[in-house]
Design a protein that fits this description.
It is a single chain. The chain is an all-alpha fold. α4 packs antiparallel against α5. The two termini are 22 Å apart.
C-alpha cells in the first residue's frame, strides 16, 4: 500500500510533482472509501493503533550505531571540555546520516533516533551559546536554561520536519515549545515552590492532546503519516495531563485515604473511556501508576501487608491483559452507548 511518506519521497526524487501528488492522494481517498464497503467482511485488524517502528533488523543495527555515535560525541565533549563544538558536530552528523537513512532508505527506527539526536544536539548547542553571555558571577534561574534548550530543540525539530518529515519531529517541537513557554514565564515571573507549574503543564498537555486528536480526525482509518504524528503527540500529552491532574485529586500520596483512592479510580476510568473512544492507549498507560497506588491502598486495607504488592501487581496485570485482548470488543460495546453524533465520522470505526 502506498503511504504518504512514499509520495513525499517520490516528490523529493522528482518522480512526482506536487500537483500530481495531490491528485494521487485524492484518487487514493476515493479508492479507500470504495474499498471500505467491499472489505466489510474482511478479518479485523488486530491493532488499529499501529505505527511504523521497525521494518527489519537493519533498523536496529543502524540505531545501535547511532547510539554509539551519540555516546562517543558526549564522551569526547567531556574530555575536551567543548560541549558546544561537539554539539554542533552532533547536529552535522545527525543531518548527514538522516540524508541516508531517513530521506533515502526511509528506515523508521533510525529516523526516530536521528531526529532526537539532531534536536538534542541543537538544544545543547543553544545552551552552550547562551552560557557564553553570562558573567562568571551570574546565577540564572532554571527558566533561562529551559528557554535556551527549548528554543534550540524547537527550531531544530521544525527544520528536521521540513527536510525529512519524520513523525516524531512534531512531538519534539512541541516538547521544546513547552520548555520555551515554561522558561519564559519563569523569567518574567519566577514561581514560588508549588506555584503555577502544574497549571502550565495541564494547559499545554490539553493543547497537545487537542492537536493530536485533530491529526487523528483527519485520518480516522490511520493510513497516512498523520496517524504516526498523532501517536507521538498522544505519547507526549498523556503524562502531562495525568501527572498534572492526579495530584489535584490525591494531594499528598503518603496521606491517601479511601476517598482519594476511589477518586483516582474514577478519574482513571474516565481516562479509560476517552482512550477507548479515540482508540489511543497512552492515557491508560500514564494513569497506571496512580491506579496501582489506589488499588494497592484499597487492597492493603483488607489483607495482610505482605500480600498487598503481589495482589496489586496481579490486578494490574489482569487489567492490562484483559484490555489488550478485549479492546475491540470493548469499543464495539461502548461507542454505540455514547452520544457522539457527527463526531463518529472523525474517530476510528469499532
Amino acid at each position: 500500500m502506498i503511504r504518504d511518506e512514499h509520495i513525499e519521497a517520490a516528490i523529493a526524487e522528482g518522480a512526482l510533482t506536487p500537483d500530481q501528488a495531490a491528485r494521487l492522494r485524492e484518487i487514493a481517498r476515493g479508492a479507500s472509501s470504495a474499498g471500505a464497503a467491499l472489505s466489510a467482511d474482511a478479518p479485523p485488524d488486530p491493532d488499529d493503533e499501529k505505527f511504523r517502528l521497525i521494518g527489519g533488523f537493519n533498523d536496529v543495527f543502524v540505531t545501535i550505531g547511532v547510539g554509539l555515535l551519540i555516546s562517543a560525541l558526549f564522551a569526547l565533549s567531556g574530555t575536551f571540555g567543548a560541549r558546544g563544538g561537539f554539539s554542533i558536530l552532533g547536529m552535522v552528523a545527525a543531518w548527514g546520516l538522516a540524508e541516508i537513512f531517513s530521506r533515502r532508505m526511509r528506515l523508521a527506527l533510525p529516523s526516530i533516533a536521528l531526529a532526537i539526536m539532531f534536536a538534542g544536539s541543537a538544544a545543547l548547542a543553544a545552551f552552550s551559546l547562551g552560557s557564553l553571555f553570562l558573567s562568571p558571577d551570574a546565577d540564572p534561574s532554571w527558566g533561562y536554561f529551559a528557554l535556551l534548550l527549548g528554543l534550540g530543540a524547537t527550531i531544530a525539530a521544525a527544520v528536521h520536519e521540513w527536510r525529512f518529515r519524520v513523525p516524531i519531529d512534531v512531538a519534539i517541537a512541541a516538547m521544546g515549545l513547552f520548555c520555551v513557554i515554561s522558561g519564559g514565564i519563569d523569567l518574567v515571573a519566577p514561581r514560588a515552590e508549588g506555584g503555577f507549574n502544574w497549571t502550565v503543564t495541564t494547559l499545554f498537555g490539553l493543547g497537545v492532546f487537542a492537536t493530536a486528536v485533530r491529526f487523528d480526525a483527519s485520518d480516522p482509518l490511520r493510513q497516512t503519516r498523520r496517524a504516526d504524528i498523532a501517536f507521538w503527540l498522544h505519547l507526549l500529552a498523556a503524562p502531562m495531563i495525568v501527572q498534572a491532574m492526579m495530584p489535584l485529586v490525591t494531594g499528598n500520596v503518603g496521606e491517601m485515604g479511601a476517598a482519594q483512592a476511589v477518586a483516582i479510580l474514577i478519574v482513571f476510568t474516565l481516562l479509560g473511556i476517552v482512550a477507548v473512544v479515540i482508540d489511543r492507549r497512552a492515557m491508560l498507560v500514564s494513569g497506571l501508576t496512580y491506579a496501582g497506588i489506589a488499588i494497592g491502598y484499597l487492597i492493603t486495607q483488607s489483607v495482610e501487608e505482605g500480600f498487598g504488592l503481589s495482589l496489586t501487581l496481579l490486578f494490574l496485570a489482569v487489567l492490562v491483559l484483559g484490555l489488550s485482548a478485549g479492546w475491540k470488543s470493548l469499543r464495539r460495546a461502548i461507542l454505540p452507548l455514547l452520544p457522539l453524533g457527527s463526531l463518529r465520522a472523525y474517530i476510528p470505526p469499532a
